[in-house]
Amino acid sequence: MYRIIFFLLFLTRITFGETFKVFLPDIPEVIDNKDHRTNYKFFYINQLFEPLFYYTGEGYKSRILENWNANTGFDNYQLCLRDDSYFSNGMKLTTDILINNLKSFIGNVVVKIHIESSKCLRLKFLLPYPEFVEKFSSFDYVITFTDQKGSYGISPYKITRFIPGKEILLTSIDSRLKYSSILILNFRNKQTFDGIVQEYNYLNYVDIPNNIKKDYNKYAYFHVEASYLLTNDKDKKIRDIVYNCVDQKTIHEIVYGEDTTFRVMDEFFPLGVLEKLNYKIKRKCVFNGLEKRREIRFTYFQDKQKRIQLENYFNSVLNKYNIFIKAQQVGVNEAAKMLESKEKDYGVALILHGGRSIKDYMISFTNDSEKDRIIDTIDGIYKSKTKLSNEEKMHRLIKFNYVLPLVQIKKYYYYPRNFELPKVSNNMDLNNYKVYELK
């Protein structure tokens, strides 16, 4: 099983041209470029994992496209790139690179491509426009650039120097973005992790194999979850709580949905990491009522034996941290009632078996009639809760996804505001190691 050897460095404000150095212990000298999963996990060191579109309460937006439309037909789309989208190797996103990405994602679904200018192209797809936008908002379809050294994602940083096992030097190339992250993984014994980190501030799912007792997958979800730390400079209250409460043996995870819960995740870091970080902490710890519930609920429509197996597995891992899993099987009407519940301090996953999923609450379907029945039941709730039209609602709700019996709504991970990194290696020059403080 690999371990995450050095997790995240973050900043809340980016200055154009600013550089910083990150120490990389134990990075392998040679990476197998033929193994896409290894490239994906190792070379996306500081990526934003950008798809073409992302969803907000006001509809779909894009950080990559300047504009897009389907004004000449339901399956004929014009896409125009922004001028300031760069990969972390310094390569600018071009129409040719975008076309290669689109073809690699969906292959023969692309019927016709016409380049209209240096930044605009027109596509004819075998997909209706709503499905096209919805499909390419999925983090299964991240825009990347690949060369002989590996794969790179859209990023506000350019990798200006990389010395395996020693350091990586990053230079900011985009002052628009408010935050970013650096994730560094180390593989041992050529084992890979089947989970997917989807977005820089949103861990959406991890694929659990049939044999959930496999060591590499049993702990990998929690390693990534506990190590994926982010700042959100709008949420000072939560950040101050973590700043006041963290210590050497405990890292607090904030689960941020429509309400906020607080639960403890500790000992999921690689051995010795927390001991090497000498935190400056305040000995007063006030939760301000946020620690209301330490419970994750997952609900799914599968056989009883599988439910009990998964429930026992997650509880065996989490109970000693005072986190509890509650699994239950419900029908469609009960599921709809759960979505109406005022208990907003935990995420809910409603799982059937295989197929498509409703994004917000992760409902998967076995067939179209079952999908329509569930959507019809839940649609009434959204009519009263949102101002979205029925058409927009369906685009928002339906998306491709994997089936996972443990899903939470949205996560932000916070790191203590002040910390010291003592000298842990002769290769490390602390004078060049820049630590960013949360303001």
Write out key terms for the chains shown:
alpha+beta, Rossmann fold, 24% strand, disordered C terminus, 10 helices, Dipeptide-binding Protein, domain 1, 439 residues, 3-stranded antiparallel β-sheet, globular, 4-stranded antiparallel β-sheet
Describe the structure.
The chain has helices at residues 36-43, 95-106, 129-135, 215-227, 236-245, 273-276, 304-318, 332-340, 368-385, 390-397, and strands at 3-6, 19-23, 54-56, 59-61, 65-69, 76-81, 110-115, 120-125, 144-147, 150-153, 157-163, 167-172, 184-186, 251-256, 260-265, 278-279, 295-300, 324-328, 348-351, 356-358, 363-364, 398-400, 411-413, 419-420. The chain is of the alpha+beta class and 439 residues long. Among the domains are: 1-48 and 155-188, no CATH class; 60-146, Dipeptide-binding Protein, domain 1 (Alpha-Beta Complex), CATH 3.90.76.10; 295-400, 3-Layer(aba) Sandwich (Rossmann fold), CATH 3.40.50. The strands form 9 sheets. The protein has a 4-stranded antiparallel beta sheet, with helices on one face. A 3-stranded antiparallel beta sheet has the order 2-12-11, with no helix packed on it. Strand 11 (157-163) and strand 12 (167-172) form a beta hairpin. Helix 8 (332-340) packs parallel to helix 9 (368-385). The longest helix is centred in the C-terminal third of the chain and has 18 residues, at 368-385. The radius of gyration is 22 Å and the shape is globular.
